[in-house]
Amino acid sequence: xxxxxxxxxxxxxxxxxxxxxxxxxxxxxxxxxxxxxxxxxxxxxxxxxxxxxxxxxxxxxxxxxxxxxxxxxxxxxxxxxxxxxxxxxxxxxxxxxxxxxxxxxxxxxxxxxxxxxxxxxxxxxxxxxxxxxxxxxxxxxxxxxxxxxxxxxxxxxxxxxxxxxxxxxxxxxxxxxxxxxxxxxxxxxxxxxxxxxxxxxxxxxxxxxxxxxxxxxxxxxxxxxxxxxxxxxxxxxxxxxxxxxxxxxxxxxxxxxxxxxxxxxxxxxxxxxxxxxxxxxxxxxxxxxxxxxxxxxxxxxxxxxxxxxxxxxxxxxxxxxxxxxxxxxxxxxxxxxxxxxxxxxxxxxxxxxxxxxxxxxxxxxxxxxxxxxxxxxxxxxxxxxxxxxxxxxxxxxxxxxxxxxxxxxxxxxxxxxxxxxxxxxxxxxxxxxxxxxxxxxxxxxxxxxxxxxxxxxxxxxxxxxxxxxxxxxxxxxxxxxxxxxxxxxxxxxxxxxxxxxxxxxxxxxxxxxxxxxxxxxxxxx
Length: 525
Prior knowledge:
The chain is built from 6 helices and 34 strands. It is mostly beta strands. It has a 29-stranded parallel β-sheet that branches.
């Protein structure tokens, strides 16, 4: 009798908890027809999401265990909560990502496979917990590798035919014709399209088929405490907001097959048509390991990118640190960028790269909506060790990089800074210890200040500063502390109005080395 009473009590309590949880807006997926044994349960999960939305919103709860699903459509006021020990895996059957949906893919709005987690025109979308989301992207990577690497023309798959039909009127710039010709566009793991109040917090995400977290045209996006791991794999960026505003990325740990964090706003004519900038973005307290870039802006930036802060981050092992990239034909303005308190180590290429020649188009154009612009960019308080190149800036003649500053930088690098085609550039308290070439190579630049710049490793017969076709320059407050053979080398028929003031050259053998093409005098006081 006691045992029967106990069983009844437990049953009543279980029912009460179940009803109470449902009443509180929590739906345990195991109570909604799902399973944690790795058996496909897309329908059960989607029904739970739809049920919660009809009730005004709620949380779909995934206890510990393994779940297998196809594409999921998130709705208004929905939270997916993955408990510690839960793994939400996505199917490797491409049919499970049909029908095609509208999304932004590499900066172009088109129709293709559904993102693994997809939301459109909704608000209050949340993914939380200590569980793991696994995109099982290898099947997608192998398929694009198969298409790309083929030396013969392959028969189109059904997915390629669908892509061709769904995007028959889509225009593509010549530079991207090759990518579009594959007609196989892998889906991002997460894309919210035209949504408000998006939050992803605490989860681990791995093995994305393509870009991992990719909000598009969203307002108020928060990504906090997320770990992203993608192995060597094509285009598996970490976090890519595109044409979003009010974005907060904090406390994330990222190691991926492409860029760690990339800020975008659309590509070429299609990006200008949507004309939606990415603005008001903060990136703080993140660590970036493997990746082509730590934080990248572009190259899809035709809608404009502005008011961005990047602070208190560590890049250790990325190909580049901070990278801005665009090209003629892209249009768009990148401006009001602040980078501060960054530590870099083992950077395989440039610690800083600002490049308006991303597609290597050397044909100068009249200034128009096709002309990309980089301006008002300020970088400070950076330490770098084991860096290949401290920095490279490459503007275009019709639109030099404008209003750029580097302050309080301490860098150990094989090569120093190279600034080419820019105006209004300032270096303040910048130390670059190089093993090859000048610490500062300045070419085709107007209006530049080099204030207290130095190196601890002067190189024999190599200047610390090298100017070529530079005008209106102030070089001041410099004190080479180590024995230096040449401080400044100046050359170029357009080099003029160069002023050296308030410098101490007690340790310098030759203050100025003049090139054969130098026409105008250098003013040394």
